[in-house]
Amino acid sequence: MEDSRKIKKEEENRKHRVIERIEEIIRIEFLKKLPEANAKELEFAVARAVSEMVAPGWREGYFSKERKAYYFSAEYLIGRMVYHNLHALGVIREIEELLQERGVDFAGMQDVEAAVIGNGGLGRLAACFMDSAAVMEVPMIGYGIKYRYGLFYQKIENGFQVEVVDDWKSDTNPWFYRREADSVLVSFAGQTVRAVPYDMPVIGYRSNRVNNLRLWQAQALQEFDFQRFNDGDYYGAVEERFQAEMITYVLYPNDSTEEGKRLRLKQQYFFSSASLQDMLNRYWQKYETEDMEQFVETTAVQLNDTHPVVAIPEFIRLMMNRGIAFEDAFLMAQDIFSYTNHTIMAEALERWDKRIFKSLLPDVYAVIKKINKRLLKEFDGSEDIGELEIIHNGEIHMARLAIYCSSYVNGVAQIHTDILKNREMKAWYKHYPDRFQNKTNGVAQRRWVALSNREFAALITEKIGDGWIRDFSQISRIEPYIGDDEFVRRFGEVKHARKMKLAEYIKKRDGFYVNPNTVFDIQIKRLHEYKRQLLNAFAIMDLYFRMKEGGLQDLPPITFIFGSKAAPGYYIAKSIIKYINEVARIIAQDSEVNGRMAVYFVSNYDVPYAEKLFPAADISEQISTAGTEASGTGNMKFMMNGAVTLGTYDGANVEIFEQAGEGNNYVFGARVEELEEMGDKYNPRKVYKSNPRLKRVVDTLVDGTLSDNGTGMFQALYDSLLSKDRGAAADQYKVLLDFEDYTKKKLEVLSDCRDSMAFWRKCLYNVARSGKFSSDRCILEYADDIWRVSSKRPNE
C-alpha cells in the first residue's frame, strides 16, 4: 500500500513537471504559446520534456558495468512513441487533461509521422522486446539502422500496388538524439563510410529502467568535394556522399539484381560492424583494460534472424586485429552470440554468393573460410557434412554460420522449434542438441491493449485492477466475469465502439465507407504466398457466388478487411493484391450482394493502422500453410483484443488453441504430419477438377469474371496453382487442398456470430487465456535461459 501511494505521488509530481517543461520548450523553440503549437511542435516539446526527465536513468543504464544483452536487428517497427512514453511514465491521462484545459488538441499528435524503420512482424517483435526489457528491468541495448525512407509507402491505384518513397522525416524525429562523438568508421572493399549513431530512450512502464535503442546512419567522410565542384564536375562533387548515404536510405533494397544484393550485404555489415565497434569502445572506456575476459563475461549478443549474422566473423576479425589467435576469438564468439531463427522459408535463410561476398568484404570472407575449415575438421567423415558446411556449392550459408558459432539457437513457437530440430536443422540438432531452445514470441500488452484499446483496457481495469498492464498473467482474473451477462454486453459495446473508430479512420485514410454494424473479418500481414491471402479471397468469391444463387440467407452482414504490402520485386504477391481488389470491386458493384458483404483492401498497412484494426476485429485470419509460419504475432494481438482465431495448426496458433481451447476458436486444414506424408503425391489439378465450387472460383483468374487489365498477372496466379512449369511445385502452399475445409469453418464462425452473447463469450475466453503471449514472459525467458542477465519480475 505504501509503494502504491509513493508511485501515485511521483506520478502527480511528474505530470506537473512535464507540462511546465512542454510550455517552456514551445515558447523557446517556436516562439509560441502552447495553444498555438501544431501537432509536430507539440510532439517535439513532449519528446524533449520526457527525454530530459528520464535522462539520469538513461545514462545510468547505458554506462552501467552489469552484464547486458545487445539485440541486433535489421528492423524496429516502433510506431509513434509520444503516447507510449507518456503512458510508461504513468501520466498520459493527466497530460491529456491538462493540455485540453489549455486548449491543445492532444489527439492531433496521432497524425505525425511514425518512425518507419521496420516492415512486419520481425520489426514489431523487436520493438515489443525493447519495451518489455525496460519494463522487466532487463539491461538491454538495441542496435539497428536508421533508414531514411523505410520500406516504401504503398498506394493502391486501379487495384495495383504502387510503391512511392516513404519519407517519415527521420532527420527531424524528436525522439532520436544524434551522438556524433560516438561515430565509427566502417570499410568495404574500395569504400569507407562514417557510421553516425542516433539514440532513443526506451522507457519502461512504471519501471526504474531506461534502456537505449541505437540506430546507425551512413555518412560520407567527405560530403562535398570542392575541387571537383570547381572543375565543373558538379555530380562528382557529391558522389561520395550519395554512395555513402545510399547504404541507409531504404529498408530491404530489392535484391533481384547483383547491385541490390551488394547493397543489402553492405547494410548488414555496416550496422553489425558499427555496433560491435561501439560495444568494444564502451568496454575499453569503462574498464580501462585491453583484457577481453570481462567483455565476454558481461556481453550477450542476440542475432534477430540471419540479417546480422555477419557480426560473428566481423567480431572474430576485430579480435584477430588486436593480436588474439583465431581459435581464442572463435571461442569468445561462441560464448557471446546467440541466434533466433524466424522462418523456414528458403529466401529468408540467407545464402550469399561467395564471389559477391569476397569482392565486398575480403577480410571477413577470409575469417569465414577459417571458420569453415574448423568445421570441416571437427566433422571430418560425418555423413551430414553437406548439411553442415558453411561454404557450400559456392554459397555462404548464414544460418549454418550462426548455429555453429553461437551458444544457443531458438525457434519462436513450439511447432516451429520442433520443425527446426526434426527437419530443417536436423543434422545440427543431432550434433548440438543442447544448443536448441524454444522461445514462443509475445507482444507488449501496453501498446496493443492498454494504449490501442483504451475502452477495453478501462473495462478490464474496472474488474481486476491495473496490475495486468505490467503483469499480464493477471488477465486470467477476468475469466469469472465471462458468465456475467452485463460484463459480456459491455464488451460488445466496446467492440462496436472500436468498429466505429476504425470505420472513421478508414474513411479518413482510404476514403471507404465501412459499415460498423457488421462482422469484421480481418487479415493483416505481409503479403506472401504461404500466408495465403489468396485462399481467403477465393473463399470470399465462393460466398459471393453462393449468395448470388440465393444461398447463405442466414449469414449476418460481413466486412472483410485486408491490409498488406508485397515486396516490390515479388510479382505473384502483387498479383494477389490486384485479385483481392478485383474481388472487392465486383462485390461493391453488385446490388444483389453488396448489402450483405463488402471487401476492403486498406493501403499502406502500418503501426497506426494496426492500432485501429486489432481492437475492431471479430475474426482473426491466421491461415498459413501448416509448417510455414514460424510464430506470428498478429494472432496474439487479435487474441488479446477479443477476436477468435480462424486458423491452421501453424506457428503460435497451436499454442493459442491450447491456451484458449479449440472450442473457442476455429481450426481447419491439413497438419504438418499429413503434408509430410503426402509429399510429392499431392495433385492440385485433381483437387481442382473434383470440386466444382473450387473450380468456379479458380477459373475467375482466367475466364474474364475479373480483370487484371491485360497484365497477365492472373494467368501467372492460375499457373502457380496448376502448372509445374514455373520452377516450383504447383500449388506449393496447398491453397486448393485446404479450400473446402476452410470455407466450411469460415461459414461456421460467421454463422456463430448471429448469437452475439455466445460469440462474445468465446472472444473473452481468448482474452482471459492470452497471458502466455506477453512479450514480458518471452523476454524474461531470454534473460534467464540465454543471456543470463538480471531482471525484475512484477511481483519482486
Give a summary of the structure in a few sentences:
The chain is α/β, with parallel strands linked by helices and 796 residues long. It has 33 helices and 23 strands.
Secondary structure: elements and pairs:
Blueprint: H1 2-30, H2 39-63, E1 68-72, E2 76-79, H3 82-88, H4 92-101, E3 115-117, H5 121-135, E4 140-145, E5 153-157, E6 160-164, E7 177-178, E8 184-188, E9 191-203, E10 210-220, H6 226-230, H7 234-237, H8 239-245, H9 258-287, H10 293-297, E11 299-304, H11 311-321, H12 326-336, E12 337-340, E13 351-353, H13 354-360, H14 362-378, H15 385-388, E14 391-392, E15 395-397, H16 398-404, E16 409-411, H17 414-424, H18 426-431, E17 436-438, H19 445-451, H20 454-464, H21 485-510, E18 519-524, H22 533-548, E19 558-563, H23 571-588, E20 597-602, H24 607-616, E21 619-622, H25 634-640, E22 644-647, H26 653-660, E23 666-667, H27 672-678, H28 684-690, H29 692-699, H30 713-722, H31 735-752, H32 756-768, H33 775-787
Parallel strand pairs: 1-4, 1-11, 4-10, 11-12, 12-16, 16-17, 18-19, 18-21, 19-20, 21-22, 22-23
Antiparallel strand pairs: 2-3, 5-6, 7-9, 8-9, 9-10, 13-15, 14-15
Overview of this protein structure:
It is a single chain. This protein has 796 residues and is α/β, with parallel strands linked by helices. Helix content is 49%, strand content 14%. Helix 23 packs across helix 30. The longest helix is centred in the middle third of the chain and has 30 residues, at 258-287. The model has no long low-confidence stretch (mean pLDDT 94).
